[in-house]
Amino acid sequence: MHDHSLPPRAVPGQPSATLQPTATKAAGEESLAPQKTRIMGRFSYLLAWFGGCVSIGTFTMGSSVVGTLNLVQATLAIAIGCFVIGVALALNGAAGYKYGIPFMVQARSAFGFSGTRFPGLVRAVPAIVWYGFQSWIGAGALNMVSATLFGFDNLVFYFIAFQLLQIGLSVLGFQGIKWLENIGSGFILCSLVYMFYSTVDRYGSELSASLLTMEGSWGLPFWGATMLFLGIYSTMMLNVSDYSRELKHGSGPGLLTTLYSMSILPCTLFMGLIGFMVSEATGVADPIQVFANAVNNTPLLMTTLLFIAFAQVTTNVLNNVVPPTYVLMDTFKLKYRTASVVVGLLAFATFPWELVKDESAAGLQLFVQTYSAFLGPIFAVLVVDYYLIRRRTLDVDKLYDETGPYRGVNYAAVIASLVGAAVALNVSSISWYASLLPAGLTYLLLMRYWAPCQRFCQ
């Protein structure tokens, strides 16, 4: 019996350094090898997720349920969505937490060495697009602060400077992420509390009593709302092992679920309810636009703009740099620092100044709907593979052996993902939920009864 608590053995025909876990890890020295040195305790890990999961789109999600849900239902929908996120992150992050392996290595057991390019692209391409998009938004916020306070207005300058700053932070790897998120989470929390207070203070008299008294819905619209808030983090559910491998040992599944849920809930709840209340009071779906027009309240405007800029940094460095960086490391055998710089430069190539135009909205929405359709199915395949096929036991040696049983492509995983995506595209309101069972069941049946996939069961 192989003892997985010990460093994995070298595989014949492969350099032993490929599998040798790092004894120490300086800033930027990330690798795909099993992670031995873990730098995050529970509190640091919670704060990392807190600071890294701030999505400006959450404001809009809150606005979208106005007239459908009352205040209690909206609050519960957000809470349930965050709990489901917590469970999903704990489930799919278990392999990374136990064995110290990243997402691209974990996916080899389900998709095969060559097959991991599929989930890798599904995760990496949107991350790079959003990296550029959110950097442009953050630069715009900084530019507005500069123009308001100092009279200096140059968006291109701030975009280039903002992106170079993020690239500089990215090359520090998880050492940089740890301290950026830990420090940044305090500013983010204080900003959200102030924005929430300002919303209630300014629009309290305009908020109709119907927010509490309206009947709302506990049916499909309610569960669809839980998926709205859940869907924001569905990309993170795929590559959660990239982060869980950095968490020190000693936390069980229940505690991990709590860590994830409680790190994501505060930001999601504040931002969702701010969007909900502002939209109900003003009829404007974008609270940022409302705050930007608050010319008589400069502190609120400055806080909001700095919050936007800072949130883009903390979210990008955690969510949108790490996944494509590891994909480039796996595909092109690049070092972490080199790959993270390449990702930062690729973000320029997304032409975010074009993506923010009104005429680009339809294309961007189609892009989001298309790649989102694959997130639930790939998640289901990974979970079924780890818990039902592997029984939570991985042979780490084989995951690093390109000539072993995981060589090539496991078509069962690809087919199951496509089946789930087809369902997701046809049930848009609850697509993530609806795609899980078809994808998971298809993968399980193919692995059990389709001969070409049998070697992947070893």
UniProtKB/TrEMBL annotation:
Q: What are this entry's molecular-function GO terms?
A: nucleobase transmembrane transporter activity
Q: Which UniProt keywords apply?
A: Membrane, Transmembrane, Transmembrane helix
Which InterPro entries does the record cross-reference, listed alphabetically?
Pur-cyt_permease (IPR001248), Uracil/uridine/allantoin_perm (IPR045225)
Membrane protein topology class: Multi-pass membrane protein
- Segment Disordered: which positions? 1-30
**Any keyword Zinc?**
no
Q: What broad class describes the main subcellular location of this protein?
A: membrane
Q: Which Gene3D superfamilies match?
A: Hydantoin permease (1.10.4160.10)
A single GO cellular-component term from the record reads:
plasma membrane
- Transmembrane portions of the chain: 43-62, 74-99, 120-143, 155-172, 179-200, 220-238, 259-279, 299-322, 334-351, 371-389, 409-427, 433-451
- Name where it's found: Membrane
Against CDD domains, the record matches this protein to: SLC-NCS1sbd (cd10323)
Q: Which family does it belong to?
A: Belongs to the purine-cytosine permease (2.A.39) family.
Name under which the protein is recorded: NCS1 family nucleobase:cation symporter-1
Q: Which organism is it from?
A: Modicisalibacter xianhensis
